[in-house]
Amino acid sequence: MADSQIHVALAGNPNCGKTTLFNLITGANGYVGNWPGVTVEKKEAKLLSDKNVTITDLPGIYSLSPYSPEEQCSRDYLMSGEPDVVVQVVDATNLERNLYLALQVIETGLPVVVALNMADLVEKNGDKIDTDKLSKKLGCPVVMISALKNKGIKELFEQVKKSAASKGQVPEHKFDSSIEDVLDHIENNLPASVSASKRRYYAVKLFERDTDACKLINLTKEKAARVEQLVAQCEQDCDDDAESIITGERYGVIAHIVDECLTKAPAKMSTSEKIDRVVTNRILGLPIFVVIMFCVYYIAVSTLGGTVTDFTNDQLFGTDGWYVLGQGRDAYDAAVEAVGEDAADSIDPAQYGPYVPGITTMVHDALVAGGTEDGGLVDSLVCDGIVGGLGAIFGFVPQMFLLFVMLSFLEDCGYMARVAFIMDRVFRRFGLSGKSFIPMLVSSGCGVPGVMATKTIENEKDRRMTVMTTTFIPCGAKLPIIALLMGSIIGDSSTTAAWISPLFYFLGVFAVIASGLMLKKTKLFAGRPTPFVMELPAYHFPAIRSWALHVWERCFAFIKKAGTVIFASTVVVWFLSNFGSYNGAFGYLPSMEGIPEEFMDYSVLAMFGNLVAWIFAPLGFSTWQATALTVSGLVAKENVVATAGSLLSVADAGETDPSLWTAFAAMFPTMGACVAFGAFNLLCAPCFAAIGTIRNQMNSGKWTAIAIGYECAFAWVIGLFINQFYNLLVLGQFGIWTVVAIVLLAAMLFQIFRPMPKHAWTDEDETNTASATVSA
Known about the structure:
The chain is α/β, with parallel strands linked by helices. It is 58% helix and 8% strand. It has a seven-stranded mixed sheet with strand order 2-3-4-1-5-6-8, with helices on both faces. Strands 7-9 form a two-stranded antiparallel sheet. Helix 13 packs parallel to helix 14 (304-316) and helix 17 (377-394) runs antiparallel to helix 26 (544-578). The chain is elongated and about 95 Å long. The two termini are 39 Å apart.
């Protein structure tokens, strides 16, 4: 360990509290990247109490057998020689399941310290664990901790530093004598270069016929043949395959350890089990989830979040300004009422109380005071392009913050793990696994980590289909579009609009379900969904620090994007909409002599929009402005509102501003066209960042093109349905595109409801149909 540096690997099952421990001991102020060659996230940070200790948080896995990218990355890192010690985090309330991975890690021969997490729950349940006896059985130190309560952490890392100084350890646990005889013979055939602490590990791996281990050891042909003969004879004697034999032996060892080291309290129904009888009920589970999600979006968008957003848009970034603690507001309103709205500009708000002008006003005044031309190019660029565009985006942060607070709470308390179990029953009917729900849940915050979360799905077809459909779920960046649409359609009626935000969320769910049913019946995605196995943690109140970190990480990711991608695109949109050709001359349009008031009709953006507007004519919006909004949404969905503010000459207005509602609604000939615009933008290809992530996950340009093409085509068809059937049923209009819409609807319904083709399920699938969960 050069320079006294200690590298610690943090390993454990999903939902064992490993992430809570990592955040606690590091403050989560570390490097987040990817493992080499894959898109599996790699977290690394310094220990808060000792900067000489580097913690690497391995992915949450159930086994070191390399069936998934996470398992492969974890095993490769452990065997790389980089970690000096492994902290194996074990859920102490589920010893039997968690010790399986612990035994595998111990078999690697690395120094291991077992951290029995959730000690507070063990005590609450009345159970007792003999840590001294458990330590002897495992052959490594065992420390009881509670990451949630910050207990035992100091003792854990005192033991970690002691163990890091050792050269490794030989596993103490033994299998059945007949298996041990075979393993001993395999060890004798290993090269002398394999260290004593690693010989057991490689013997087990050769017994399991692990391909990677066989390549690393590189036995001679004679020795490889001898090992194969020993394994084949053992399989014949046990009437089982080699890997299953080792799995059974490990569980046998675990059962013996648990019997001797764990004293269980008299069986009784836990609080989590009582809650699960209701929230995971086959009948009540799904309706409860719908109600909870309705409440989340109602609070974040329509009530509390809307109030704070109104202040941010109108007072903070708008031209209204605000009075400190509201002092003077009533007097100012009375003065305005006395002179009339038309003469309101003649009144100085500062006369009536402690008044703070809006940011846009302050920037404008500062520019003019510095000699900038009032309404000139620089003033327009800064106030309308930069401040106005970013103001429309940052005005949405309060709503997004509330949304992330509530979603993070539901995740950290253990409820969302149950929802994945509930949704598995639903998704399985539509050709998807419950594992697909996790990426879709994450996508409700941001599509980028949502797409990355698909890596946990082992089945390639299921994973690709989930990547293609997960961004249908409205992410946080799409909420301003929803708010803008609702204001434009319904007007200033928050009571009526309250139910519509959740409705657009469930439009995304419908898109996922319909896509799953249709795609699963094609040869590209045929096959049964993979079985669903997931740990259900006990319900608990989240650790405040961990909860806050999760909210901050999501909010910061949005703010960071707003300060880079959205900032740049806002300036580009301002340039494209303010520069163009008029009377044969190209330049800054507002300063051109004789330019009409609607100067943007001559802009570069208008030219581009008119070129592609025909694509959206059947959807009811064929103006260059609507097309420009759609294209800007591909850069970042948040751009739609910012671009709308710039194009409609209300740059300081947010998505809840009535002036933007009115101007936005005027772009569309009918309400059907307005809703079709919203449906297309919510369901079509995600932002550039998410498209890049899709490319990484698919690892194929062809499949990326298929995914983006399908999303755009599906969104276009749904928009066509909405506009054409609105015209037919409400306005009584019938045309060629109405016929096209009817034909496409018939084709979609046929694909959804037709029986599963014979090629869809293989014989292997027939033996692998059940969904399984592991409950705390």
